[in-house]
Amino acid sequence: MAGQGALLKTLTLTNNWLLSNMCCRFNMVSIQPQLASIRTLKLETKQKLKDLKIPEKPKKPLTPYLQFVTEKRKDLVKDNPNLKATEVIKKLSTEWKSVNEAQKDKYKEKYLREVEKYDNAILQYNSNLSQEQVRVLEEANAEKKKQKQKRKTTKLNKETGKPKRPLGPYLLYLKEQGKIRNISHNELLVALKGEWGLLSETAKKKYRDEFEKEMVKYEEELLNWEKKMFQEGHKNVIRVKTLESLEHPPSRIASSKSSKQ
Length: 261
Prior knowledge:
Residues 140-164 are annotated as: Disordered. Residues 58-126, 163-226 bind DNA. By secondary structure, the chain is mainly alpha-helical. Helices cover 71% and strands 0% of the residues. The chain is elongated and about 80 Å long. The protein starts with a helix and ends with a helix.
């Protein structure tokens, strides 16, 4: 059973299935925005940023609420070591609501002072950047936005149950052989290396027919899912051809004329 599970994992990755479980932990106190965001950049862009020795960008000041979180979180965690990170934030959020306005005003005043300092610092920072540094930073920001959108799309697809593309003929063959031989996926890949190419067209037809059958079902389910996404306003996850047909459906008049002819 363990070998079959590992095999299926390999097959789905090979077939470009998006099965990653997006899990994000947010540490409001010690997070370093530049370092955190740079992890998603391409190696080429990372190298450019390193070569250009771009100075660290001034950090935005903490909002009144985040000041409160920073101030209270350490003691809360110390007194409640078994609390999960999400529970800590939830508890602090509840406590913030009970803070009196006079105390909140102190946090707000500090925030406004820090914003003024930040605005001056960011102006100075930008004025000291070379044109090449500005260009590379713009490239990096564009990449980060693209990666962020990709993560959002992956999360949306998972939450809304986007249909998964079926395994192709070759992967169906591997899956079947894995069950028959009951061996690990690594052993199976070694054992079956080149075997698919030696199969007759008649033998391959079985898997191709199964794939085509599953593809018909997949296309139908995908179209229904896309219609649902269209109704909910998630146009960015819909295929171009489907989006065009949903935004500009054939008119009833045109359909009526064509049927009469």
